[in-house]
Amino acid sequence: MSSDVRFTDFKSDKQPTWCPGCGDFGTMNGMMKALAETGNDPDNTFVVAGIGCSGKIGTYMHSYALHGVHGRALPVGQGVKMSRPDIEVMVAGGDGDGYSIGAGHFVHAVRRNVDMSYVVMDNRIYGLTKGQASPTSRSDFETSTTPEGPKQPPVNPLALALASGASFIAQSFASDALRHQEIVQEAIEHDGFGFVNVFSPCVTFNDVDTYDYFRDNLVDLQEDEDHDPTDYEAAKEVILDSDKEYQGVMYQDDESVPYHEQHGVTENMSEIPDGAPEDAMDLVREFY
Amino acid sequence: MAEDLNWAVGGEAGDGIDSTGKIFAQALSRAGRHVFTSKDFASRIRGGYTAYKIRTSVDDIQSVVDRLDILVALTQRTIDENLDELHEGSAVIYDGERSWEAEIPDEITAVDVPLKSLAEDAGGAIMRNVVALGAACEIANFDVEYLDESLEKRFGGKGSKIVENNKEAARLGQEYVQENYDLDHLGYSLETTDNDYVLLNGNEAIGMGAIAAGCRFYAGYPITPATSIMEYLTGRIEEYGGHVVQAEDELSAINMALGGARAGARSMTATSGAGIDLMTETFGLVATSETPLVITDVQRSGPSTGMPTKQEQGDLNMALYGGHGEVPRFVVAPTTITECFWKTIEAFNLAEKYQTPVFLISDLAMSVTEQTFPPEAFDMDDVEIDRGKLVDDDTVDQWLDSQGRFRAHAATEDGVSPRAIPGTTDGAHMSTGLEHDELGRRTEETDVRVQQVDKRNRKVETAKEEEGWEYREFGNPDSENLILSWGSNEGALVEALEYLEEDDVDLRVISVPYIFPRPDLTDEIEAAEEVIVVECNATGQFADLIEHDALTRVKRINKYTGIRFKADELAEQITEKLSAEVPA
Ligand SMILES: Cc1ncc(C[n+]2csc(CCOP(=O)(O)OP(=O)(O)O)c2C)c(N)n1
Ligand code: SF4
């Protein structure tokens, strides 16, 4: 593998069909830069994408990739990593994909702490199906399927992750390019499951959670010298604070032991013998 | 007919019925006798009747019969449940000291053994089942030393004291019967041979086949009766560098296995009933992304949660047609326990050669039945691995387009594309469940759509030509009575042949291990006067396929009580059917 990988090597020659101005452009650029910056190469990287506008990201990037069924990207990514600890795995999707249909998988991927990164493009709406409420939509957010708003509180994905025993929780904003890239990079470098919720505005269907809204309301934890991401209580406070929107690494367990280390998964499982393993007759003898 | 002995132990779930039965079965196997076991169990952990039955003979046996010679009854219900099968020569071992008073019909020999107190003498009441085994050995005139070997195997890990206590318990049971009863008139005597046999069930054979075939990644979610495949692999697959993960549900399990397969590992998931429903959404993704994946369905009685611990072959249509759209796939259904092993290996080869989902369809009866085989039946030297068109750094170049992009879904003549796994230089590519072009990129262009659908379906055509979709055959090849079967019914049918021969009825039995693609049976059907399809379901799903293929009506024998076919019962039903009218 070449050591001089540039971020454009992760770009496919397919033109994105996202709406001009969609937050997913910035999210993707940051992901590609973070992958290149952390020394990865398209031939050693596997990107799994969800279903949604966000899930199209796999098509616009260049690497080994799978675009699967709605909500099941995390299991695929974990299967890749468990059988190939030598491969860099990144999973990407939307808030509907990850926190609605895939919410069960999210909880379990978090607690397994498989060494991979998960980037969620949170636009607080269903984009691809043209503007229905998502699990992160505000309770009074009017959509085609919720004319008076969902009338239920939004899911707090960071809190869900924390409660599930996450070892890395972060949030970024697609439009703050450099910070977004840095944060994804930290997620990749984290030993375990690196979760990043990205504010990635939908300019077509969401007129509440806009670029301006996030610009005006975003607090960067980096500027808060008191915030120590290894301090669980401090992380909890920030994550449960519903009055503000934060970016930065909220929580990182510096003693995180990734799945493969806990389970002794070390082999590249694609390599198998030409016939049965040498001592395979022992398997039969066990039944004497 | 083989001279055989039918033995059973029964009691409440939680009474250690299973391990008691297994210990005796292993002792018989060590003595060079054939063993065929069956289980009656309910879907609960404590309480509820459960029994482990063993049929043993020096000749090969492949079915259960409706007869019990020696019964170890830990509860009255055990006796009641088996009254039909007990006969004048039967002996029932029970513990008269316990609070229930056994009601045993007069003509049956009641053998009252103080199981609990003798076990206590040997070191603990927990060994009362072993006392009963010793007593059973005495009644059957079977050398208790074979039981010792089996006890050593079972308890060896727990220290020599435990082993010695158990041997003592067996001895006490044996001696008690010797001293208090004269049972020679029953006439049981278990001959032994020098043959070495292994004793295993269908799920163990599938697990063993998977490891032999190079399966290194398994993702599953517990469900009866598929769980024991996962239990077998756990702790063993690691020895070969693999890993088993218990996923959060079946949706996750199949998608994890898909991830493993795309990463290049031979991967498998197994489930049953409701689990296969949950996996259906992903069938199409596996097929469209052209991922080699083995999906095992150990069928149980449905629909819904049905009868989870009972036999059925009701998922054939699901395996053949499950999933939206049209999904090219292979469906392989082993017909015996040894076939569970060999067909699993074949399933992995087919999956990689053709880059498709391969459904391996087994059933509950096969999954819980333990049977003896000579170890050579699983000769590992005969295992062949075919990884198909896997490309590496040196061969990838010929599959790059003019711009250096890997054509992962190249529309080749045989329908099979090159496959590059992560780490292969220049092999990086996208795969998706969306319709795509040769590069794996989404498309809705009509000609590309047609090209890719045809390409995927062509794999099946290629496989039809290249692989031997054979069947197994028994009985008289020239008989005008043709019986067709799939799955675990084969054993009972083969034995039914013997019964029917006694009545001068001859049959040609064809047992079909490939459901799709499947052997063309038109000639065989045309040559026959009568065609009967035997299967454990109510509607005759396989019979429907046969009628469709041969454009002719067939007779059907269907059983959907939740219990597998028995040889004598089948013989009777076949005789009835032969003289019946063909359905209009
Ligand atoms: C099983 C299933 N149900 C429904 C859909 C339809 N569907 C496609 S994308 C989507 C929602 C996507 O929302 P989100 O994850 O927030 O992504 P966005 O488009 O906003 O980026 C839905 C419901 C589907 N593809 N599969
Ligand atoms: S609909 Fe929204 S999320 Fe989808 S591409 Fe357009 S802006 Fe982006």
A few lines on this structure:
The complex is a heterodimer of chains A (288) and B (584). With 288 residues, chain A is α/β, with parallel strands linked by helices.
Largest interface (C-beta under 8 Å): A-B, 60 and 70 residues
Beta strand % of chain A: 15-25%
State the order of secondary-structure elements of chain A, H for helix, E for strand: HEHEHEHHEHEHEHEHEHH
How are the strands of the biggest sheet of chain A laid out side by side? 2-1-3-4-6-5-8-7
The number of domains of chain A is: 1
**Level-2 CATH architecture of the largest domain in chain B:** 3-Layer(aba) Sandwich
Structural class of chain A: alpha/beta
Poorly predicted runs of chain A are none
Number of helices of chain B: 18
Percentage of residues in strands of chain B: 15-25%
- SSE class of chain B: alpha/beta
Number of domains of chain B: 4
Q: Tell me, what's the shape of chain B?
A: globular
The name of the CATH topology of chain A is Rossmann fold
Unreliable stretches of chain B: none
Organism (chain A): Natronolimnobius baerhuensis
Pfam family, one (chain A): PFO_beta_C
Cofactor (chain A): Mg(2+); thiamine diphosphate; [4Fe-4S] cluster
InterPro entries (chain A): 2-oxoacid:Fd_oxidoreductase, OFOB, PFO_beta_C, THDP-binding, TPP_enzyme_TPP-bd
Structure write-up:
The complex is a heterodimer of chains A (288) and B (584). Chain A is α/β, with parallel strands linked by helices. Chain A has one domain (7-287): Thiamin diphosphate (ThDP)-binding fold, Pyr/PP domains (Rossmann fold, 3-Layer(aba) Sandwich). Chain A is 32% helix and 16% strand. Chain A is built from eleven helices and eight strands. Chain A has an eight-stranded mixed sheet, with helices on both faces. In chain A, helix 7 links the parallel strand 5 and strand 6. In chain A, helix 4 packs across helix 5 (103-112). The longest helix of chain A is centred in the first third of the chain and has 15 residues, at 23-37. The N and C termini of chain A lie far apart (49 Å). With 584 residues, chain B is of the alpha/beta class. Chain B has four domains: 5-195, Pyruvate-ferredoxin Oxidoreductase, domain 3 (3-Layer(aba) Sandwich); 200-382, 3-Layer(aba) Sandwich (Rossmann fold), CATH 3.40.50; 396-466, no CATH class; 472-579, 3-Layer(aba) Sandwich (Rossmann fold), CATH 3.40.50. Chain B is 36% helix and 20% strand. Chain B contains 18 helices and 21 strands. Chain B has helices at residues 17-30, 76-82, 115-122, 128-140, 144-155, 160-180, 202-212, 227-233, 250-262, 273-288, 316-321, 337-354, 364-368, 446-466, 490-502, 522-527, 541-550, 567-578, and strands spanning 4-12, 34-40, 49-57, 68-73, 86-94, 109-112, 198-201, 215-220, 243-246, 266-271, 293-299, 330-332, 357-363, 370-373, 430-432, 472-475, 481-485, 508-511, 514-516, 530-535, 555-558. In chain B, the strands form four sheets. In chain B, strands 9-8-10-11-13-12-19 form a seven-stranded mixed sheet, with helices on both faces. In chain B, strands 2-3-1-4-5-6 form a six-stranded mixed sheet, with helices on both faces. Chain B has a five-stranded mixed sheet with strand order 16-18-17-20-21, sandwiched between helices. In chain B, strand 10 (266-271), helix 10 (273-288) and strand 11 (293-299) form a beta-alpha-beta unit. In chain B, helix 1 packs across helix 5 (144-155) and helix 5 (144-155) runs antiparallel to helix 6 (160-180). The two termini of chain B are 37 Å apart. The model of chain B has no long low-confidence stretch (mean pLDDT 95). Classes of the chains: A alpha/beta (288), B alpha/beta (584). At the A-B interface, strand 1, strand 2, helix 3, helix 5 and helix 11 of A face strand 7, helix 7, strand 8, helix 9 and helix 10 of B. Strand 2 (64-67) of chain A pairs parallel with strand 15 (430-432) of chain B. The structure holds thiamine diphosphate and iron/sulfur cluster. The site of thiamine diphosphate (TPP) has 18 residues of chain A, from strand 3 and helix 4. Chain B: Residues 410-429 are annotated as: Disordered. Chain B: One of its GO terms (molecular function) is 2-oxoglutarate synthase activity. Chain B: One of its GO terms (biological process) is response to oxidative stress.
